[in-house]
Design goal:
about 220 residues; Rossmann fold; three-stranded antiparallel sheet; binds 2'-deoxycytidine-5'-monophosphate
């Protein structure tokens, strides 16, 4: 298969990352999880103890590099894959993600990874980052189902959590991600929407694989 770019956007817990991972493994694509870039920057900002709201305090962005490779996230050379999935990061990440300076630096990280056969997932991939993608998907699921998935995911990661708190946090994060001024979470006009509430991961993955094969004939 020649170069082919798939953009997958959607709210937290819609299954973007797991599904992108499965589809890319099955088809030999590279998966780029752009949420991981924002999470790694948030981790670094918290470690430095900066005021997250203050754009002027992000000069460290020029000193760091974030790479997403084979399901792992590296902040400089440190594997931070586990550290960026904690509730502390999830609850703070929308603050750096709304800042122009942060988004511009993330675009650098995204550009470096967008060559060849790519599945990139995030919030603004189809609208801003890869507007010429060969296929755009917008994944959704009910708030309750997305909270249930996060709860199960946390359990697997050994993170203790409460379903109702997660539900509240997910709704809050979507609101912040959709209402911010720069590159908000939004369905691209040419994206195909898939409501995954009642679908299994395999069903969604197979549907996307069929769409890729159809467009690539
Ligand atoms: O997909 P995720 O939960 O790992 O994303 C973490 C946060 O990063 C999300 O709340 C908003 C931000 N994000 C973004 O603004 N743009 C993207 N392309 C990806 C993520």
């Amino acid at each position: 298969m020649k170069d082919f770019i798939v953009a997958i956007d959607g709210p937290a817990g819609s299954g973007k990352s797991s599904i992108s991972d499965i589809v890319s493994k099955k088809l030999g694509f590279t998966h780029v999880d752009t949420g991981a870039f924002f999470r790694a920057i948030t981790l670094e900002a918290l470690r430095r103890g900066i005021n997250l709201e203050n754009e002027d305090e992000y000069s460290f962005l020029d000193e760091i590099n974030v790479i997403y490779k084979e399901g792992k996230t590296y902040l400089n050379d440190e594997d931070v894959s586990g550290l960026i999935r904690t509730p502390e990061i999830s609850n703070n990440v929308s603050v750096p993600a709304k800042l122009k300076r942060v988004r511009e630096r993330v675009i650098d990280f995204e550009r470096l990874s967008s060559k060849g056969k790519i599945i990139m997932d995030g919030r603004d991939i189809g609208t801003v980052v890869l507007p010429n993608a060969d296929l755009k998907i917008f994944l959704t699921a009910s708030n309750e189902e997305r909270a249930r998935r996060r709860f199960e995911q946390n359990k697997l990661l050994g993170i203790e959590s409460d379903y109702n708190t997660i539900l509240k946090e997910i709704i809050e994060r979507d609101k912040k991600d959709s209402e911010r001024a720069i590159a908000p979470l939004k369905q691209a006009i040419d994206a195909i929407p898939i409501d995954t509430t009642k679908m299994s991961i395999d069903e969604v993955s197979n549907m996307i694989i069929s769409l890729i094969n159809e467009r690539n004939e």
